[in-house]
Design goal:
Blueprint: H1 2-21, H2 24-54, H3 62-84, H4 89-93, H5 96-123
Helix pairs in contact: 1-2, 1-5, 2-3, 3-5
């Protein structure tokens, strides 16, 4: 999950840099980061699903369900963003790619807060 989060954060940063510099290499970096983040996010979501089935993820309360839905939303928006970034040049980032990168980042932040709460419910406080 952390690798995917780093990739999605990097994609937002490279989108912002592209919007300021118009250098094509930044769109390539964004596309690669989104693809890598989506692949690793899918692996993390699969692992989370297995944990939920085994009872190691607290889905008995609303926080657990919100965490699961939020991680699924992050993955769905990131995949959509990856498709948007497959366009050519300016249309791959401006404005939809940048907006989707920001939405992915914000959803990822919400998921991380919910994940910390779920972790405390399962393993105790820290």
């Amino acid at each position: 999950m952390h690798f995917a989060a780093a990739c999605f954060t990097g994609a937002l940063i490279t989108d912002i840099v592209y919007s300021q510099t118009m250098q094509m290499m930044w769109t390539n970096f964004s596309a690669w980061l989104l693809f890598a983040g989506a692949v690793m996010g899918a692996v993390a979501f699969l692992a989370g699903t297995i944990d939920a089935v085994r009872g190691q993820l607290a889905l008995g309360n609303i926080t657990g369900w919100l965490y699961g839905l939020c991680t699924l939303a992050v993955l769905a928006v990131a995949i959509l963003n990856s498709f948007v970034h497959s366009r050519d040049a300016w249309t791959s980032v401006m404005p939809h790619g940048l907006i989707l990168s920001a939405v992915t980042f914000l959803l990822m932040l919400v998921a991380s807060v919910l994940g910390a709460r779920v972790n405390r419910l399962v393993w105790g406080g820290f």
